[in-house]
Amino acid sequence: xxxxxxxxxxxxxxxxxxxxxxxxxxxxxxxxxxxxxxxxxxxxxxxxxxxxxxxxxxxxxxxxxxxxxxxxxxxxxxxxxxxxxxxxxxxxxxxxxxxxxxxxxxxxxxxxxxxxxxxxxxxxxxxxxxxxxxxxxxxxxxxxxxxxxxxxxxxxxxxxxxxxxxxxxxxxxxxxxxxxxxxxxxxxxxxxxxxxxxxxxxxxxxxxxxxxxxxxxxxxxxxxxxxxxxxxxxxxxxxxxxxxxxxxxxxxxxxxxxxxxxxxxxxxxxxxxxxxxxxxxxxxxxxxxxxxxxxxxxxxxxxxxxxxxxxxxxxxxxxxxxxxxxxxxxxxxxxxxxxxxxxxxxxxxxxxxxxxxxxxxxxxxxxxxxxxxxxxxxxxxxxxxxxxxxxxxxxxxxxxxxxxxxxxxxxxxxxxxxxxxxxxxxxxxxxxxxxxxxxxxxxxxxxxxxxxxxxxxxxxxxxxxxxxxxxxxxxxxxxxxxxxxxxxxxxxxxxxxxxxxxxxxxxxxxxxxxxxxxxxxxxxxxxxxxxxxxxxxxxxxxxxxxxxxxxxxxxxxxxxxxxxxxxxxxxxxxxxxxxxxxxxxxxxxxxxxxxxxxxxxxxxxxxxxxxxxxxxxxxxxxxxxxxxxxxxxxxxxxxxxxxxxxxxxxxxxxxxxxxxxxxxxxxxxxxxxxxxxxxxxxxxxxxxxxxxxxxxxxxxxxxxxxxxxxxxxxxxxxxxxxxxxxxxxxxxxxxxxxxxxxxxxxxxxxxxxxxxxxxxxxxxxxxxxxxxxxxxxxxxxxxxxxxxxxxxxxxxxxxxxxxxxxxxxxxxxxxxxxxxxxxxxxxxxxxxxxxxxxxxxxxxxxxxxxxxxxxxxxxxxxxxxxxxxxxxxxxxxxxxxxxxxxxxxxxxxxxxxxx
Length: 899
Known about the structure:
- The protein is 6% helix and 48% strand.
- The protein is mainly beta and 899 residues long.
- It is globular, with a radius of gyration of 33 Å.
């Protein structure tokens, strides 16, 4: 029996919306296959078996999300590679939790939204990103989709693409589905359907490379766009059907409207359009039936028994073992962030899995992911969309809203995608079960923490605690508590406890000290040395973990050398300059760890503003199929009153390989950067393509240097980029040859293939023109054990002879600075020597095999020592960091220093 049903969805975020659902007696047909039902297209199991033998999995922690769902973090180790993985374990037999598929914005296809955005809109307590989709299309899943018990989309004609489904009684399944369906006219003639709500794609195994050629598709009101679909290379004949009756036929043209609720459009082309012409008329009835055909066995399943279905890619795990990949995976290889879903052997638990890729986690290969999944108990599972799409959000215990579980490959930015798999609580309001302290787990010295007492009920859902005012206590003096204010005082760990009546809750808080910092950087590295100068100098600390923290003014102590000044509300003001001072230093310290702003007469200088360019600029590429243009044009937005360098590119003709789009300066010669530059600043009009932005230089020794301007172009509009050049070891003078966009082969489907970026106001900080100018040059010679120094042939007495100890020459740094310029200071309490020379500020601490140079911690082979009451520093280490050359003559035991 054929029937048409109008069902109102009960899924959160779609209340009152009606999709037209067409079924054949509510049956999904399942056809048998040979063997275990897993198509073997490529990929033997040997790689997974080897990795399983050398891998280990460690549970780091777990936390309840809601009744029936918890978040578990794991550490996965293979050899020297360490990766983090997050798993949401959902009890499918728990009546207080359910899984469902969320779609775009407001539940529509052809709209996209981030995983976090969908979770917020639909009230999910946790979610992971879902199915693959064509990034250049309007936005619909490649696989089948059932949401809230309604079939929303059918599988594409692609081999080896698996799907995950859960029945309404909580039984999970992983299978590969195809689609079969037809519409029947009043005269009894039938027309085969190719699918429902599909974007244009290239089918596999069919007679055509065009999905919509000579084909018929159904589009429901879940498809929001007017075009059905975009870029199909076909001209449609469309039929509007409402309540089973044809209300409109548009011959060889699309119906120029969206689909009303309760209606659907039959979209046809070619031979399918001929069927419409010969068999359908306005006012006639049109019925439809279809089936989803599984390749597992002959069991029949009523589609109304399904709570959800979400499509994916290759199968990963079958019967608790790594499975052969069901389709080619070369396009999704490498070590990436990944998303997967599976279920346990007894069918009770579903596992929503995401692996992390960032500075603290290496990501996983697909075979590593297989190994991890089997180790945590996945019986059958598949791969979902990954890489830049991989996103997991969860609602922390006692919190009201979901947050990112971990940073994506783009940091805190979340990619807009077509669907996501959500976890929903269906529990009633419970009794108060427990408390939790919520707030900063790390604080900087002087920083005031924000803490709240939050509660959760018997179903682990949040309870409003706004009427409760707890008493706060600290376990030690590292943190000071005054009423409701919690302030960090000194480095170390403390336990902050909230007490309310007989109940209490606690959390550990770490006050960060100098040892936790990898680098400390002001927003600018140079500024003009002139009275009245005022510049913004917000300071950012990068921790050893890779995390970045804005350092509050209250946590910093400033020192000024060569001038008098002040820092108020993050702004440095020069009130006066010392007599004869050529260079000034504004040194900011956090718990003794330093960074510096070097002030000089020149400071930052504009290198190119594109107003009067007298050399050629042209477009070039490494791939013949890549096209584009580079030209000086009138700017836009905030740069509309100036000329800019605009780079347009189209990489569609070079897919499958690494592609570059260059804006080239002065042919192959480039433009001169005349002196040593420590930093580069430029304004860039981004296109949010997620491509890589770089610059190519050639230094005076002929070495090509590639400078990263932005790892990801993840912004649109003008933005100022600041690049530290000191780590690139560029020998100046150098040539800037080209600015360019890179689209690497791995993850290419995740980035835009065409776009436009513009550049303006390229500036270089050249301390060699100012802060390093006038430093003494020449040659100094010292001999071990002798209290003399010969500078440019003139012998000078020194009060302490160089010392040779364990193969290292030590000297009081003052002797080197007297000869080559600079100054040093000694902090007796911290046992720290601070050296200032030109554009460099260096801290060395007695007994520590490390140094801090211009705000960056660096390891060293040797440490300063105290000998005979004098502090001695390693001569070669210090001199070379200050830009001096050191030579050692073993026979004569002499050290030669050159500048």
